[in-house]
Amino acid sequence: MEAYIVLREEEYPTLLNELQKQLPASLMAYYPLMLSQKSLLPKFKFIFVDEWPEFNCVLEVENLPEDLSPHRMYGYCRREEFCVHLNRMICQRLQKSSSSINLFGGPRRMKELLSDDADTHSASKISALGSCGSKRVQDTKPSWVGGFDAFRVSKNTLKKIEVPRTFTVTTIKREYMDLVLSQWQYTGSYSDAKEFFTLTATSLESVCILNDSGEPVAWGFEQHYGAIGLINVLPDYRRKKLGSAVVSLLSEKILQKHDFVYAAIEAENAKSIILHKKVGYEKIDVYPECIFTWCYYENGKEKADESLQ
């Protein structure tokens, strides 16, 4: 017996409607599905829920080649204790693939909660949740969990920042992506980084500021998980308010389509927090503990295959 139900495509609008009702906590599952339904991003390979039509958690699986790793998935739990169900879904996927998994979404305390579950839940409880896999799979937990604080701006709080006259504002073009990704510290984490982020930057909203020679010097774009991101200003052009201008202009563009714009910022990133607050962003707290969470599941089979090469 599987630990999940596979939804049919005709059921996706119902799921999207339910996720919308649970915003902003459901953002990292709602936003990719919303974009996919609007054909701005590719359709999902599978969408799983633990129950239907009522559900406690959902897992959305991108349609990626099996040899590409990690696979991107998007998850949401109605309450943090339901991450046990979500984890079972992910473990079932790990059994059927050699790729590791990068999960967007889920509670910040996911790894801790799963450790508690392994200590306190009996085998009968595991069976009741529908998992019939091996003990190795039942005990699998994310090897890394990270959470970012959520900041939000609205039409009423957004402050407009003017761009200095010597600069030109445009959107991110395909020919700019090598430069954009060279400035992003996580580029090497995705083997399809250029293909995926080129699609994201050119399909969704973006802002790029050019110098008087027509070269990109500052940029940012709408992310697939519901936040603005990859905000960057080249070192020689900092302290000119270009970063604030990018955030302001990009937020304004997205607010023309949605009632909300979010930023996911690490608590230690004081400079980014100050920048976003100057533009009108305010920190928000949402149960279960945060909106933006990333979990990484390392697949042992993938590691074993690499050792044989």
Could you explain how this protein is built, in words?
The structure is a single chain. With 309 residues, the protein is α+β, with helices and mostly antiparallel strands. It has 2 domains: 162 residues, Aminopeptidase, CATH 3.40.630; 123 residues, Gcn5-related N-acetyltransferase (GNAT) (Aminopeptidase, 3-Layer(aba) Sandwich), CATH 3.40.630.30. It is built from 11 helices and 13 strands. Strands 1, 2, 3, 4, 5, 6, 11, 12 and 13 form a 9-stranded mixed beta sheet that branches. It has a 4-stranded antiparallel beta sheet with strand order 7-8-9-10, with helices on both faces. A hairpin with a 7-residue loop joins strand 2 and strand 3. Helix 1 runs antiparallel to helix 2 and helix 9 crosses helix 10. It is globular.
